Backbone:
């Protein structure tokens, strides 16, 4: 717990466990353990000097990245209206930005923070964080492999386990779930007659919403395409946009889509 007190015109920072008779103070400390520490380090168990050095290397990078480049919201006010609680937050800002706007911080401290911020590169910090995290994973996996040395089962154990082995499946924490089959269309496509026209409109003006495309169809074909088909058109446009985004980011396209064919050429 960090408490601030003014002494002789300056702010004195004192580290304590929590304030006396304020049991909710600990929650303010624990929220950073969940929002920062657990998200960065995870829940693995680390022991030994090598793990301590790797954690120190990671924390040295995380400290700079979180304080200078990771914005967060802070609660400004909270009002209760019956059973409903309305919360109002300050605009998102980094701890570095809040330090610059705090009148209690000395000008010399702000200048030092500005000078340190000018020397930092967020991309390089992220690269160092990923390298330190990978080192921690290797340390944890190495300790696990040293402690647990599985023994090969005998022939009798192997044969007796064949009757129930098919029920166990994949039990590793990192195992990927079995891919679900794509649900195909069960009803006739209501936009089958104008699919090419819709695709052409989407390729020409990809910023148009599904509502605008449906209104265009309603103006050209009165009484044929009611408003209840909006959700069907939204799913179709969403699949088209996903295909375009995958091509822009990864340079590949999805060959099988639940609605329509994959886009064959650049759309934008």
Residues:
């Amino acid at each position: 717990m960090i408490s601030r007190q003014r002494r002789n015109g300056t702010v004195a920072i004192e580290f304590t466990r929590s304030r006396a008779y304020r049991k909710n103070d600990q929650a303010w400390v624990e929220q950073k353990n969940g929002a920062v520490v657990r998200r960065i380090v995870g829940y693995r168990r680390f022991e030994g000097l090598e793990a301590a050095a790797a954690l120190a290397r990671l924390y040295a990078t995380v400290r700079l990245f979180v304080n200078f480049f990771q914005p967060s919201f802070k609660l400004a006010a909270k009002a209760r209206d019956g059973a409903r609680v309305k919360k109002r937050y300050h605009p998102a800002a980094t701890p570095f930005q809040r330090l610059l706007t705090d009148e209690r911080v000395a000008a010399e401290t702000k200048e030092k923070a500005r000078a340190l911020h000018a020397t930092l590169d967020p991309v390089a910090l992220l690269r160092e964080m990923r390298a330190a995290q990978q080192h921690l994973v290797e340390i944890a996996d190495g300790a696990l492999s040293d402690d647990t040395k599985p023994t090969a089962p005998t022939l009798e154990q192997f044969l007796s386990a064949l009757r129930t082995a098919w029920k166990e499946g994949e039990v590793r924490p990192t195992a990927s779930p079995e891919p679900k089959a794509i649900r195909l269309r069960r009803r006739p496509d209501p936009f089958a007659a104008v699919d090419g026209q819709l695709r052409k409109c989407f390729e020409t003006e990809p910023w148009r919403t599904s509502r605008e495309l449906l209104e265009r169809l309603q103006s050209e074909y009165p009484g044929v395409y009611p408003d209840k088909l909006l959700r069907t058109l939204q799913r179709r446009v969403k699949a088209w946009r996903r295909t375009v985004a995958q091509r822009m980011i990864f340079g590949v396209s999805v060959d099988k889509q639940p609605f329509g064919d994959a886009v064959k050429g650049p759309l934008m």
About this structure: The chain has three domains: 1-43, 44-145, 195-250.
